[in-house]
Amino acid sequence: MDLTQNVKAVQEKIAAAALAAGRDPAEVTLCAATKVQTDDTVRAAVAAGIRVCGENRVQELTAHLEADAYAGAEVHFIGHLQTNKVRQVVGRVALIHSVDSEKLLRAIDAQADKLGLIQDVLLEVNVAREESKGGILPEGLPALAELALGCPHVRLRGLMAIPPVSTVTGENRKYFAEMRHFLVDIIGKMSDNHSVVDCLSMGMSGDYEDAIAEGATLVRVGTALFGPRPPVTGPAH
Question: Pairing mode, if any, of strands 52-55 and 29-33?
């Protein structure tokens, strides 16, 4: 695996997809999904030009932070977050992508209050209504967004989604287009608030070009950068 070449190739595809959609490539952020990667691999990714790392598992996040593996990059938490793990994440990452319930939102707000900071978050939407996935169902999104906008120690930055795994180019564009609609709807209903709602986190290794075509501002890419992941061992979170 040539990580430097992989990073360059993905960056070039992101730029091409943005230009094809009439967008500025600078509008799209590449987030390297570093799940199960070693400290050295994370460091190598940053050295190769990665500026945002996304972590799925709290213990891996903690270990990489303690090893200073992310040095030079911003860190996001992109996996499912249990409320009892909130204190290990809030204030340690720039953005939490996976807020999908009132309970989790309030726990993040309370922990941020304790730390005297404002935590940036995205609301995760189960856009395809898959029982196996987290995320708020679309009909619950307006109420959760309204609550997030009212939390004094949370700053709502946008939305995140994980559509079904697809091997057919273009198959997920309908979901990406729906997410864009949800974001525009939230922005249209906002009044005076302290948030900058401008982030649409969607698209992974198999479909990030389609996501960009439909308005993604951040794509979460793992396999296309690091190759197939080794088996995951230990607890999931």
Answer: parallel
Question: Phi and psi at residue 117, in whole multiples of 5°?
Answer: -140, 175
Residue 204 lies in a domain: yes
CA distances from 199 to 6, 215, 216 (A): 25, 10, 8
C-beta atoms surrounding 164 within 10 Å: 13
CB 158 within 8 A of CB 201: yes
Domain count, the chain: 1
Residue 103 lies in a domain: yes
Domain, as residue range, for 21 = 3-226
pLDDT (tens, 9 = 90+) of the chain, 237 residues, equals 699 999 999 999 999 999 999 999 999 999 999 999 999 999 999 999 999 999 999 999 999 999 999 999 999 999 999 999 999 999 999 999 999 999 999 999 999 999 999 999 999 999 999 999 999 999 999 999 999 999 999 999 999 999 998 778 888 999 999 999 999 998 887 765 556 899 999 999 999 999 999 999 999 999 999 998 766 555 544
Which of 231, 237, 204 is CA-nearest to residue 220? 204
pTM of this structure: 0.94
Give 185's contacts (C-beta < 8 A, 6+ positions apart).
142
Instruction: Fill in the amino acid letter for 206.
Output: G
Q: How far apart are CA 100 and CA 49, in angstroms?
A: 31
Residue 147 placed within a domain: yes
With respect to residue 236, please indicate whether it lies within any of the assigned structural domains.
no
